[in-house]
Amino acid sequence: MQFTDTIYALSSGALPAGVAVIRVSGPGAADALVRLCGALPKARTATLRTIRTRNGEALDSGLVLYFPGPSSFTGEDCCELQVHGGRAVVHAILDELSQIDGFRHAEAGEFSRRAFQHGRMDLVEVEGLADLIAAETEMQRRLALEQAGGGNSALYHAWARRLTHARALIEAELDFADEDDIPGSVSASIWTDIAALWNEIDAHVDEASLAEIIRDGLKIVIAGEPNAGKSSLLNALAKRDIAIVTEIAGTTRDVLSVDLSLAGFSVKLYDTAGLRETAEVVEREGIRRAREIIGHADLILLLSEKPGVFHLDEPVAGNVPVIRVATKTDRPDTAWAPADADVFLSTKTGAGVPDLLQKLTAHLPDLAGRTSFAMPSRKRHVDCLRQASAALERSLATEGLDLQAEQLRLASDALGRITGRVDVENLLDVIFSEFCIGK
């Protein structure tokens, strides 16, 4: 990316639309407005203008805004054209911009990357913005908004300041031990705080599993013997036909999934092949995949159409709950006792489905009364936090101020990599590639 270029792109949704927003950023943004609209509008004030070609031909009328840097999203001079969202209108304006020397179409995420480069956002806020755009549930929105708004960044910066203070005292003692105004020992003044900081970081990392459920969804696997009604249940919960349903055992050969929103959380529901021994090659591969996804489940719905036949011979982590679901209860020839299952349902009549949804909701995280969603939501954050925690632990266990100071430096660098303050060049392309064009 050449940051000396002026970039432009459609920043709103797919065309056609009621309104289209074309964004321009770079040293030529003001000149572009003058060229297209005849005069530079008052800064940060929406102004109705006719947008024209270089030959004076009218392209459209719309609102134009000018944001002089550094008080703009990217930190550069920026402008926006809010025009009618027809394909012909937008393409004509983009084509006119492409004719200006030094202008080019923006790459994916380039506006946000320029905001980072100019100090308008750090990496955590940039990633939060990407998650906010992609959010599909209420909890995803709240988690992303916390990060995009700087909640996590403020926490990490506060930790970094405490480390900087501790390192400064250590360096002062190492370099000026003979001076009267330098304390003789820093242990009493900083190591208690370093131990507290270590515990705070570990407690923060412990919330990563909750953030993962919010961001990536609770993985619920429907398992059971062939013909137990797994595909019918998937279709009933999704309220549409996702899986093929027949009376033939072994119909489902692959893992099918659907995303649902339940109580504000994202839920990933997986339908699996019936678990049994078989010599059929394709079905055997489906069963292998079913066992693999069961091993990564957060919750298992174990189905059976026969009383007393709830068997799951697959390795499951001890903390993964299993809900026994009795199916096809509308059949008159099947007698179920209350203790035989946790939920009794019939996808044919719909009986029991509300009870199952209530059971599933009970296994979602309880966020009642929680005011902050400052949690590490990405593996990159968790890895850096664990590196910082390990360095703090070593600093407390190490003898010698110079060695302890080095461990505090490593902890500080690990925190800095989260927000992008140090050693981040290899991360930038990956992070900004997640963005759409025009953001």
CATH topology of the largest domain: Rossmann fold
Query: What's the level 1 CATH class of the largest domain?
Result: Alpha Beta
In spatial order, strands of the major sheet run 3-4-5-2-1-6
| Alpha carbon gyration radius | 29 Å
Helical/strand content category? alpha/beta
**How does CATH name the architecture of the largest domain?**
3-Layer(aba) Sandwich
How much beta, percentage-wise?
15-25%
- State the helicity in percent bands: 40-55%
Please give the count of helices.
14
Instruction: Tell me the total number of β-strands.
Output: 12
Taken from the alpha-carbon principal axes, the silhouette is flat
Indicate how many domains the architecture comprises. 3
Uncertain residue ranges? none
What is the distance, rounded to the nearest whole angstrom, between the alpha carbons of the first and last residues? Answer: 15 Å
The name of the CATH superfamily of the largest domain reads P-loop containing nucleotide triphosphate hydrolases
Organism: Sinorhizobium sojae CCBAU 05684
Enzyme class: hydrolase
EC number: 3.6.-.-
Subunit structure: Homodimer. Heterotetramer of two MnmE and two MnmG subunits.
